[in-house]
Write a structure and sequence with these properties.
single chain, alpha+beta, Aminopeptidase, 7-stranded mixed β-sheet, 4 helices, about 30% helix, acyltransferase activity, transferring groups other than amino-acyl groups, GNAT_dom
């Protein structure tokens, strides 16, 4: 499911050989991530079929915004299940996790992934003008930062404005 999801948004930005190599590499990474006590994973299933998942946890990088205390690492939906509510339900699951003490959440999304950016913006995320600290690239594209004020009153995220 994850390979199908990431292939759908990388199509046209990574060549098939590079995408296949990355897909093989990520299997062990996912095993470690799922078992990490610093991460929470929620899955969406229809019957016996996995159709999506979301992963949240402590920020991977020190954040330029001191109010950030959690990160949405990934939210993937099987491409055949886009626009039917799976992603929104997974996002709600992340919010449920965050209600247990998170103030401001961070996510990084590829600049070219307009579908994901629109999804997050519909769910209240705001671009903060930052780019991921390790600055990964796919061609000329970078990972852009988004923030979501999860709910501690009076604690607003800082806009970095850096490029």
């Amino acid at each position: 499911m994850h390979v199908r999801a990431r292939t759908s948004y990388y199509q046209g930005y990574l060549d098939d050989h590079e995408l296949a190599a990355q897909n093989r590499r990520h299997v062990a990474d996912y095993e470690r991530m799922i078992l990490s006590p610093a991460r929470t994973v929620r899955c969406a299933e229809l019957g016996d079929e996995l159709v999506g998942f979301v992963v949240v946890g402590t920020p991977y990088f020190p954040d330029p915004d001191p109010s950030v205390d959690s990160e949405l690492y990934q939210l993937h939906v099987d491409p055949e299940r886009h626009r039917v509510g799976v992603g929104s339900n997974l996002h709600s699951s992340a919010l449920d996790v965050w209600r247990d003490g998170t103030s401001v959440a961070r996510l990084w999304v590829w600049e070219f992934n307009e579908r994901a950016r629109a999804f997050y913006e519909r769910h209240g995320w705001e671009a903060d003008g930052g780019c991921r600290p390790d600055d990964p690239r796919v061609g000329r594209y970078r990972m852009l930062g988004y923030l979501l004020n999860v709910g501690t009153p009076g604690r607003e995220p800082t806009r970095t404005g850096s490029e």
